[in-house]
Structures are given as C-alpha cells and as structure tokens.
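To the wet lab folks,

You asked to see what we're planning to order before we commit. Fair enough. Below is the target structure as tokens, and below that is the sequence we designed to fit it. If anything looks off to you, flag it before the synthesis order goes out.
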C-alpha cells in the first residue's frame, strides 16, 4: 500500500499536510476498534463545532451545510455568519456532502457511512455503512460467480468483509432525489436508483483493474466522469452502465473535477496541477495556476468565473475560462478543503480551522 492509499483509508489526501495529520490522529484508533462503536454513537453536541476540522460544504437552497470530523454537521441560514449543529446518528468523520434541492441531501464518510436528510440537514439517518456495503458486495459477487472473473471478484468481496468497515467513501453525485453514486478508496463505487433506500455495488462496471482510489465523481451533459489516484480518469457515456479509461495527461492524483455550465472540464490535484478539456475529456491542456500547493476544490461562480482553491488557502479566480488566474490568499488565513458561494454572493469555506466567510467583490451578485 502506498502512502496516499494509507491516508485515503481514513478519507484523507496524503498531501493535505496538517489537515491530514490531524484527522489521522483523531480517527486511526477509531478505525481500528473491533466494535466500530462510532457507527452507532450519535455525534456529540459541542460549542466548538464551528472550529472543528471540516471537509465538505454544500448549498441546500439558501442554506449552507458543512460536514467534518466526529460526525459534525453544521447549518447556516445567514450565509455563513452563524452556525448551529445538526443531529447526526454517527460520530465518524464525514468527507463530502451534496444536496439536490433545499430538503434532500446526502453525506458520506469514514467506515463506509452514507447519511441522508429530508429536512435540509436538520436531522440525518444512516442509509449504509461499511459492514453492509461489504455484505452487498459479497451478495453481488456470489450471483455473478459463474461469469468471467467471478471467482476473483468473490474473493475480493469476501476480503472486504474480513477487513471490516475500514474503507471510506470520499465523494458522491446525485442527479436528482432518486439516482446517485458514492465513490471511495480501492475502487469502491455503489449506485442507487431509489434515493438510497437500497444500494448496488458497481465496481464491476468500472474499468479500474488496479483498484485505484476514486476521489471524485461528476456529471457533464450526458457523461459521468470519475477521477482518482495516479492520474485516473474514467468516463461513462451510457448512463453509468460502464466507465472506461480516458488517456490521462498527468501521472499524479486528481482530487476533484469541475464541470462548467458551458461543458468544459477541469481536473485538479497535486502540486497545483489543473487540466482543461473542451471535448468531454478526450484531450487536455494544462492550466498555468502559478502555485505548487495541492488544489482541494473548484467551483463555478454565478457570474461564470471560476474559482480554484488550494489546501493552503490560496484562491485562484479566472474570468477567461482558465486562460489566466488572479491569485490571492483567503482572508480566513487557514487551510481550505471545500468552498461554496453563499446566498449573499460571498464565499464560505471549510478546512482545518473550521468555517470561514470571505466577502469577495468579484462574487457579490445577488441570486
């Protein structure tokens, strides 16, 4: 196992520096505990929740929802000025969150946890964990045991059961209230067509023979795209039935993918690397970001400009579709794991030091 995979097993990106080390220290003992009691222990209320390590941030209508260590979920209804803690049934670290509207949302995290909310993040319930995910993988492999590669798939699925629920989910994509995917370490990918009431292992639909970590999943038009470690790029053109590799321009890991409203793609990752495609991922050109820090997140702002943020807190704005970038440091002065444009047009971010807001004049248009 390489260093990056070790960190990924805790839902981390090994290049995140202090952020990764902090989370590793806070979760490694939990991940090794035989009983995995945190899967049944609700997140504890704490007055310091807004300063906790947070990894994911999403919009639920005009509300901001942040997720992070020990099952902490925070809600803000005033564009990030104040935050309150939601009720969560587990106390494992959460890595990513997405809402399809103001009410329906999902969060994923360590130990194979998937959470769902129907009330804008006020309350959550567990839909899946690593134990159930492994059992589903065994059931699917047993059904397909007589197919090509069936014996190997069954052995891998049984190994998941033996390992216990130690593998995190790292990202998710839902197209609507019913249809979605969750992805994570070691080629983990599961699909739902009923809003998460049931999940199907989808690993055999992904051409990833080395079992590389899947760090991001997004949709662009009718395509679904996956990015991962060691330059992994995969695309589905058949509604997710199969994911085939794309020729990668880069051997380092991609940690995320931005799909712009105009159909362009930006894959981003280690050491400031970002790559642009205008032909659905068939070819790529390198973007000159001018930084060496790992890029953690990217969004398209309401005015059509692009924002890439590094884990060391550098904000890169582009008003010409990635041809050039205007760099500045986040006013929060801390690390950045995720960023969103709030309802008032300002920027909210989360990271090692919790939540932060940053009123940027280039992103101040009202919705």
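Sequence we intend to order:
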């Amino acid at each position: 196992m390489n260093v990056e995979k070790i960190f990924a097993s805790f839902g981390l990106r090994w290049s995140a520096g202090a952020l990764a080390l902090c989370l590793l220290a806070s979760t490694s003992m939990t991940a090794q505990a035989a009983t995995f009691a945190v899967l049944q222990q609700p997140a504890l209320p704490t007055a310091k929740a807004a300063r906790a390590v947070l990894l994911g941030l999403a919009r639920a209508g005009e509300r901001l929802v942040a997720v992070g260590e020990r099952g902490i979920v925070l809600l803000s209804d005033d564009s990030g000025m104040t935050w309150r803690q939601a009720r969560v049934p587990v106390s494992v670290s959460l890595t990513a969150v997405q809402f399809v509207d103001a009410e329906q949302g999902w969060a994923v995290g360590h130990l194979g946890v998937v959470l769902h909310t129907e009330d804008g993040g006020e309350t959550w319930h567990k839909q899946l964990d690593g134990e159930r995910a492994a059992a589903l993988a065994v059931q699917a492999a047993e059904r397909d045991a007589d197919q090509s590669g069936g014996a190997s798939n069954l052995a891998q699925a049984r190994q998941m059961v033996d390992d216990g629920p130690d593998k995190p989910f790292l990202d998710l994509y839902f197209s609507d209230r019913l249809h979605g995917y969750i992805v994570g370490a070691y080629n983990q990918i599961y699909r739902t067509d009923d809003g998460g009431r049931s999940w199907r292992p989808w690993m055999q639909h992904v051409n990833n023979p080395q079992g590389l970590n899947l760090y991001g999943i997004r949709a662009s038009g009718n395509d679904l795209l996956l990015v991962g470690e060691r330059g992994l790029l995969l695309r589905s053109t058949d509604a997710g039935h199969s994911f085939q590799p794309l020729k990668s321009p880069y051997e380092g890991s991609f940690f995320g993918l931005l799909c712009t409203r105009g159909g362009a793609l930006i894959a981003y990752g280690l050491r400031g690397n970002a790559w642009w495609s205008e032909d659905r991922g068939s070819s790529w050109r390198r973007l000159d970001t001018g930084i060496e820090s790992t890029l953690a997140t990217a969004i398209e702002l309401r005015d059509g400009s692009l924002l890439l943020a590094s884990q060391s807190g550098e904000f890169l704005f582009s008003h010409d579709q990635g041809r050039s970038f205007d760099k500045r440091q986040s006013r929060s002065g801390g690390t950045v794991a995720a960023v969103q444009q709030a309802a008032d047009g300002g920027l909210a971010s989360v990271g090692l030091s919790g939540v932060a807001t940053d009123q940027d004049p280039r992103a101040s248009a009202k919705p």
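Structural context that might help your review: Residues 1-34, 363-367 have pLDDT under 50 and may be disordered. The CA atoms of residues 318 and 325 lie 5 Å apart.

Thanks,
Computational group
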